[in-house]
Write a structure and sequence with these properties.
By secondary structure, the chain is an alpha+beta fold. The chain is built from 5 helices and 8 strands, in the order αααββααββββββ. Among the domains are: about 60 residues; about 120 residues, endopeptidase domain like (from Nostoc punctiforme) (endopeptidase fold (from Nostoc punctiforme), Alpha-Beta Complex), CATH 3.90.1720.10. The chain has a 6-stranded antiparallel β-sheet with strand order 3-8-4-5-6-7. The chain has a two-stranded parallel ribbon with strand order 1-2. Strand 4 and strand 5 form a beta hairpin. The chain is rod-shaped, with a radius of gyration of 65 Å.
């Protein structure tokens, strides 16, 4: 035995052929891969790279949410527009109401002014009538026999006819011979002398010349109310007396002027 036989050899152990072949194959594959990679890199360096990005597809839930959001936005816009229209309408209504109120106040003031003016005129007219009636009553109470006894011609005929009807009935619308109303009696009395008077009191109060109650003559027509709108008429017979169809309770009577002072008189004779 050799003197080195017991010493482990320092040489590398032999590799088997299969191991060597496998490593060679791996190396070859790596080199092939590098070669392909290199070729690919060269090709990529020569041509520009185009990259395409694909947007994500909306799912049904996301699409619904987007639609609902759009509807909500549109509804909010519509609400804002409607509110703006309402505010504008309210402003216009307030402006119109203010104008209407001012106009109403103006009309009310004008109506009040007219009413006050009419009241003043009526008071003045009433005072004038009262004064004239007072004068008439005084004249009637102090007058002497300058009426019936001195009435001649047509006036005497008119008065005679009127007095002949005293005691007969008053019937509204009657024209004799057994009943009369006020204007029917006056019309019939003047018809005796050929004077054709209107049928109603209103027209008879303007049928002749207006005369003062302080200057009456027998045969004058007395009226109550305003000229042209009188509601009663009678005949002045002198001595401060008149004959007329007064009302259903009295019938045709002869009364002093103070019994029911007239408003005015007209002369047709």
């Amino acid at each position: 035995m050799s003197h080195t036989a017991h010493i482990r050899s320092h040489r590398k152990p032999r590799r088997s052929a299969s191991t060597i072949a496998m490593r060679a194959g791996v190396a070859g594959g790596v080199l092939s891969t590098l070669a392909v990679a290199g070729a690919s890199g060269s090709a990529n360096a020569a041509e520009p790279v185009t990259q395409t990005l694909e947007l994500p597809t909306l799912t049904a839930d996301v699409a619904t949410q987007v639609a609902q959001s759009a509807d909500a936005t549109q509804l909010a816009a519509a609400n804002y527009e409607l509110q703006a229209e309402r505010d504008a309408a309210a402003a216009n209504a307030a402006k119109q109401a203010k104008a209407d109120l001012a106009e109403a106040k103006k009309k009310a003031a004008e109506a009040k002014r007219k009413a006050e003016e009419a009241a003043r005129k009526e008071a003045a007219a009433r005072a004038s009538r009262n004064a004239e009636r007072t004068t008439l009553s005084t004249t009637a109470s102090t007058s002497t026999s300058t009426s019936t006894s001195t009435a001649t011609g047509s006036a005497a005929a008119v008065i005679a006819f009127a007095k002949a009807q005293i005691g007969k009935s008053y019937v509204l619308g009657a024209s004799g011979p057994n009943a009369w109303d006020c204007s029917g009696l006056v019309q019939a009395a003047f018809k005796q002398v050929g004077i054709d008077l209107p049928r109603v009191s209103q027209s008879q109060s303007t049928a002749g010349t207006q005369v003062s109650l302080s200057n009456l003559q027998p045969g004058d027509i007395l009226y109550w109310g305003s000229a042209g709108s009188a509601y009663h008429v009678a005949i002045y017979v002198g001595d401060g007396m008149f004959v007329g169809a007064q009302n259903p309770s009295t019938g045709i009577v002869e009364k002093p002027l103070s019994y029911d002072p007239p408003t005015g008189a007209v002369r047709v004779l």
